[in-house]
């Protein structure tokens, strides 16, 4: 794509050139029209003046002397000495009604017979010169007056006017285009400075831009860039935190797996080898859970992407999720109950995120409930919000440690846990714009409640 400067200059200069061309054409047309009107008026006026002279009350002999004097004076005109070059291009002739030529200029064209059409007309003489003529008939005095003007007189004047109009416009246009070029360059300088600043930054620099003074048109761009830089910084921090957490937590399980594998190789009998293999499988399962939990929490970070909301029945979705894990709960010697204050409730929500939170809450409840105990799940709705509670019958948690349960990799009283379950639930709650609360219940047990808007 072409640059903004080039696009703007092309548009502005094109419009200026087109405008000047249109104005020039209008000026030429108007000049032609006005010159034609003025010269036609002069032709008619000259014919009237000549008519007045020819009407003078003189005797026949005096008239003949007057005509002779006219012809001698007009024939002796020297335009190059004491006249004007246009004199030879302006002519008149006078006939009587019998067709006798009375008076004429030397430059007048020859006619086989006096013109018959009255008023204005365009003619071409034998020399191929075009004339603009005006014919006036004076029937009372027996006169036919013809006054003409060579067409090149008018053309020459029009050309002079065009030259005096177009040339200043041309030079003025060049100066104007240069001024526009400089003005646009000056106007776009802040944008060029912004681009130069961005090019000059270190590739790894994510510091916010602080350009001042900055035109109001570029302030939204700077704000958007700073917001983008902040989001990139957050993503990088999240990735670094994830990598650090994964490296920290995977180091010990992998070392333990190596020890169990080495024990299998060094086992002295089948019983020791079997025991080492069992420990190895347990370690692999725990490492697998750790990896899955790490991937889940990375996917559910609040900045990881927009919510994928769909329309559906939240009660049915929770019930279906519990049905899938019921066999596993029963295999642990526990019972599962579910109740809701509504049989059906249509909502627009991210059901996948809610399912992940519910699975982790129920898993935690199962891990801390004694055999023969019960895990209770309750769903209720209030003021366009839902509350999803999971209650176990475990020993509960001391009040001072409730907040620590949300820390990453903090696992209290569960050797098989990786300490990420409640962290995942808290991430889901933030993603849904809600919160997760923990409280001890009487006589025993812990209740976790996820509350969010729908």
Write the layout of secondary structure elements.
Layout: H1 4-54, H2 60-75, H3 79-82, E1 90-96, E2 101-104, E3 119-124, E4 130-138, E5 143-150, H4 151-187, H5 189-200, H6 219-266, H7 270-299, E6 310-313, H8 314-331, E7 335-340, E8 346-349, H9 351-368, E9 374-381, E10 385-391, H10 421-431, E11 435-440, E12 446-453
Parallel strand pairs: 7-9
Antiparallel strand pairs: 1-2, 1-5, 3-4, 4-5, 6-8, 9-10, 10-12, 11-12
Could you please describe the fold and organization of this structure?
This protein has ten helices and twelve strands. A hairpin with a 5-residue loop joins β11 and β12. By secondary structure, the chain is of the alpha+beta class. The chain has three domains: 157 residues, Beta-Lactamase (2-Layer Sandwich), CATH 3.30.450; 81 residues, Helix Hairpins, CATH 1.10.287.130; 144 residues, 2-Layer Sandwich (Heat Shock Protein 90), CATH 3.30.565. α1 packs antiparallel against α4. The radius of gyration is 53 Å and the shape is rod-shaped. It has a five-stranded antiparallel β-sheet with strand order 2-1-5-4-3. A five-stranded mixed β-sheet has the order 7-9-10-12-11, with helices on one face. The mean pLDDT is 78.
Provide the low-confidence segments as ranges: none
What is the C-alpha radius of gyration, as a whole number of Å? 53 Å
Total individual domains: 3
Mean pLDDT: 78
Order of helices and strands: HHHEEEEEHHHHEHEEHEEHEE
- The backbone outline, from C-alpha atoms, is rod-shaped
CATH second-level architecture of the largest domain: 2-Layer Sandwich
């Amino acid at each position: 794509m072409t640059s903004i400067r080039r696009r703007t200059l092309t548009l502005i200069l094109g419009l200026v050139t087109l405008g000047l061309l249109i104005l020039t054409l209008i000026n030429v047309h108007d000049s032609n029209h006005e010159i034609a009107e003025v010269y036609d008026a002069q032709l008619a006026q000259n014919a009237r003046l000549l008519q007045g002279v020819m009407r003078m009350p003189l005797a026949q002999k005096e008239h003949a002397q007057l005509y002779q004097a006219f012809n001698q004076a007009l024939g002796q005109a020297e335009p190059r000495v004491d006249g004007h070059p246009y004199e030879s291009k302006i002519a008149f002739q006078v006939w009587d009604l019998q067709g006798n030529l009375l008076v004429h200029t030397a430059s007048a064209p020859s006619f086989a017979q006096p013109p018959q059409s009255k008023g204005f007309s365009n003619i071409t003489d034998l020399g191929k010169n075009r004339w603009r003529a005006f014919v006036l008939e004076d029937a009372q005095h027996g006169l036919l007056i013809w006054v003409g003007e060579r067409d090149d007189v008018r053309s020459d004047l029009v050309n002079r006017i065009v030259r005096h109009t177009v040339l200043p416009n041309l030079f003025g246009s060049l100066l104007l285009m240069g001024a526009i070029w400089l003005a646009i360059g000056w106007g776009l300088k802040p944008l060029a400075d912004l681009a130069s600043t961005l090019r000059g930054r270190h590739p790894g620099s994510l510091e916010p831009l602080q350009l001042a003074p900055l035109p109001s048109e570029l302030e939204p761009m700077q704000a958007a860039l700073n917001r983008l830089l902040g989001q990139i910084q957050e993503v990088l921090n999240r990735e670094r935190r994830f990598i650090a957490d994964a490296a920290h937590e995977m180091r010990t399980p992998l070392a333990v797996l190596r020890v169990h594998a080495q024990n299998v190789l060094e086992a002295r009998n089948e019983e020791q080898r079997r025991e080492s293999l069992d420990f190895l499988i347990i370690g692999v399962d725990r490492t697998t859970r750790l990896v899955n939990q790490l991937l889940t929490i990375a996917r559910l970070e609040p900045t990881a992407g927009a919510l994928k909301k769909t329309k559906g029945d939240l009660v049915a979705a929770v019930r279906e999720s519990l049905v899938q894990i019921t066999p596993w709960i029963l295999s642990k010697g526990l019972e599962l109950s579910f109740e809701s204050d509504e049989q059906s409730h249509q909502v627009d929500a991210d059901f996948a995120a809610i399912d992940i939170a519910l699975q982790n809450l129920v898993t935690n409840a199962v891990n801390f409930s004694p055999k023969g105990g019960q895990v209770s799940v309750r769903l209720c709705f209030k003021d366009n919000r839902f509350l999803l509670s999971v209650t176990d019958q475990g020993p509960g948690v001391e009040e001072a440690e409730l907040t620590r349960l949300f820390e990453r990799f903090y696992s209290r009283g569960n050797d098989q846990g990786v300490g990420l379950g409640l962290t995942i639930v808290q991430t889901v709650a933030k993603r849904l714009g809600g919160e997760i609360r923990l409280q001890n219940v009487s006589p025993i047990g812990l209740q976790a409640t996820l509350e969010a808007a729908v």
